[in-house]
Design brief:
The complex is a heterodimer of chains A (about 290) and B (about 280). By secondary structure, chain A is an alpha/beta fold. Chain A folds into two domains: about 240 residues, Rossmann fold, CATH 3.40.50; about 40 residues, no CATH class. Chain A has eleven helices and ten strands. In chain A, β9 and β10 form a beta hairpin. In chain A, α3 packs parallel to α5. Chain A is globular. Chain B has about 280 residues and is an alpha/beta fold. Chain B has two domains: about 240 residues, P-loop containing nucleotide triphosphate hydrolases (Rossmann fold), CATH 3.40.50.300; about 35 residues, no CATH class. Chain B is built from eleven helices and ten strands. In chain B, strands 6-7-8-3-9-10 form a six-stranded mixed sheet, sandwiched between helices. A four-stranded antiparallel sheet of chain B has the order 2-1-4-5, with helices on one face. The radius of gyration of chain B is 20 Å and the shape is globular. The chains are: A alpha/beta (about 290), B alpha/beta (about 280). Chains A and B meet through α6, α10 and α11 of A and α6, α10 and α11 of B.
């Protein structure tokens, strides 16, 4: 079942001199069962958009259909707790939100809030710690002894412990080194392929969009500028250029080669295909 | 001339696990050196040793022919500027102009000269329009530009960038890398950049690779970055240009080794022309 935004508007501090229109009558269909990237400049409405997915923010106009419920501005929403169990939201730099004495307790906090017994919650902690690439020996350690990348894994494990169907991540790889970022993105791909989670990732990194995501939503000044598959998005780099976003390396190399006269198909999206096309053209004149 | 020289440097935080093991290196005046290595390899510790924030257990540091010791530390610090990782932690002023002025005020630069210096360096980093802006109105990349202007205004001879782009988005990263290269072209400064960004390394004069507190590779980027297997073993990235060349090689097309995309495009054009 798709997630549908209907004329959804979000205005911060509505009716005050500080009001700010972050989302302006958005119509958008998001598919379940995919990895979707939400991109756009700082201030374009990306984070506001995703915070509606678990009703952390409520629309000030319009409505949102997600899972089996409808959230609209006109009606006071009920039973948000169960929606929040199904839609897990991971903020930017989630490692700053760790607070418990041990990693086990930190991860178990969420499930306990949703009614799991102490035992069940600790079992969940055991299940998810290995999923994020740490072993069980970490469970009794303090979360504050860990490196930045490890802390972030623990914070994500805390969300996974609630076993959400939909996982929403705001800049999950920001500030990690290249190896850490790669491992983080591969974790989400695994959650998607093995555990069939629907995943939304807010990101600035076009290499990640190209390599790991299926669909892309481009936000611009509170509007949806475009939404399409990742492969068709990178065929036409004009939107990227217009928005001042750096294309992935393979796309910028492809475009540079086209500019100097190589006849290369705009659908090429891997270094391997690009090398084949170049080899063909260089070889033609032999 | 040798601007920085480290000899047989040893350092550990707790006397047990060494963080820097027998590191010797020399950096020539006016060059742009990058230092890479995965997290915990000792990169940032070396920077802290160079500016005297940490003290080595043994070995020596010579900067501008002066030994880094108590007698010379102030003299040496006046010659070195440093730009840190987090743009929010180093914005001190209430506005961009205040922030650039901070170091100058500390050095008692007369206020009639100050305005001129602030404007010169704000212009240099393309922030002239923002002199009266508050930090909350700026992007991460813009804040780092201001930090760089503040450092340049002090007229240092050496600038250290300690992961100055790692918290920025790709646009901010590209902006700051371009600015670093521009400063390198225009000023006779010795620049050291501690970085994770392999594309930045490809544009430097000299690269030092650290692993577990030791130098494991060193030289010109075009020589060092060619050892792609070794880089992968060290959990480091390899440049995109090199990834592409390897794919070309599989197709039977051999380019002369190059590590930047600009050069790759040039090389394939030449190859097409020759054939």
């Amino acid at each position: 079942m798709p997630i549908t935004f209907q004329k959804l508007t979000h205005e911060y501090n509505a009716g005050t001199p500080f009001s700010y229109l972050a989302l302006d009558h958005i119509d958008l269909n998001l598919q379940e069962g995919k990895i979707t990237a939400i991109i756009g400049e700082t201030g374009s409405g990306k984070s506001t958009l995703v915070q509606h997915l678990n009703a952390l923010l409520l629309p000030t106009e319009g409505s949102l259909k997600i899972l089996d419920r409808e959230i609209s501005a006109s009606e006071k929403p009920k039973h948000l707790k169960s929606l929040r169990k199904h839609v897990g939201l991971v903020f930017q730099f989630p490692e700053y939100q760790l607070f418990e004495e041990t990693i086990a307790k930190d991860i178990a906090f969420g499930p306990k809030n949703f009614g799991a017994s102490e035992e069940e919650a600790l079992q969940r902690a055991k299940d998810v710690i290995t999923l994020v690439g740490l072993d069980e020996s970490y469970l009794e350690r303090s979360p504050f002894e860990l490196s930045g990348g490890q802390k972030r894994r623990v914070a994500i494990a805390g969300i996974l412990a609630m076993d959400p169907d939909i996982l929403v991540l705001d800049e999950p790889a920001a500030g990690l080194d290249p190896q850490g970022a790669k491992e983080m993105m591969e974790l989400f791909v695994r959650l998607h392929t093995e555990f069939h989670k629907t995943i939304f990732i807010v990101t600035h990194d076009m290499e990640h969009v190209l390599r790991y995501c299926d669909e892309v939503v481009v936000m611009d000044h509170g509007h949806v500028k475009t939404t399409c598959s990742v492969s068709s998005f990178f065929q036409d780099p004009s939107i990227l250029k217009e928005m001042g976003i750096h294309p992935p390396a393979v796309v910028s190399l492809r475009e540079s080669l086209r500019e100097v006269g190589f006849e290369i198909d705009a659908s090429i999206l891997t270094m391997e295909q690009l090398a084949q096309a170049v080899a063909k053209e260089v070889g033609h004149h032999e | 001339m040798e601007k920085i020289k480290l000899e047989n440097l040893h350092f550990s935080y707790n006397q047990e696990t060494p963080v820097i093991k027998n590191v010797s290196l020399s950096i020539e005046e006016g060059t742009y050196t990058t230092i890479i290595g995965h997290n915990g390899s000792g990169k940032s510790t070396i920077a802290k040793l160079m500016i005297g924030l940490l003290e080595a257990q043994s070995g020596s540091i010579i900067i501008d022919r002066l030994p880094l010791d108590e007698a010379h530390i102030h003299d040496i610090r006046n010659r070195i500027g440093i730009v840190f990782q987090n743009p929010d932690n180093q914005f001190i002023g209430a506005t961009v102009a205040d922030d650039i002025a901070f170091g100058l005020e500390n050095h008692q630069v007369p206020s009639e000269q100050m305005q001129n210096i602030i404007e010169t360096y704000a212009k240099k980093v393309s922030m002239s329009k923002f002199l009266n802006s508050e930090p909350t109105k700026l992007s991460g990349g813009q804040k780092q530009r201001v930090a760089i202007a503040g450092v340049l205004a002090m007229k240092p001879q050496i600038i250290i960038f300690d992961e100055a782009t790692s918290m920025l988005d790709p646009q901010g990263k590209a902006e700051i890398n371009a600015l670093i290269q521009e400063i390198h072209r225009e000023e006779n400064l010795t620049m050291i950049s501690i970085t994770h960004d392999i594309e930045e390394v490809a544009h430097s004069d000299h690269v030092i690779v650290l692993d577990q507190g030791q130098i494991v590779m060193e030289g010109k980027p075009e020589d060092v970055l060619m050892h792609d297997q070794k880089l992968i073993e060290l959990s480091l990235d390899i440049p995109n240009a090199l990834k592409f060349q390897k794919e070309l090689w599989k197709q039977g097309v051999k380019l002369s080794p190059c590590i930047t995309m600009e050069k790759v495009v040039e090389e394939v054009c030449q190859l097409r022309f020759k054939n």
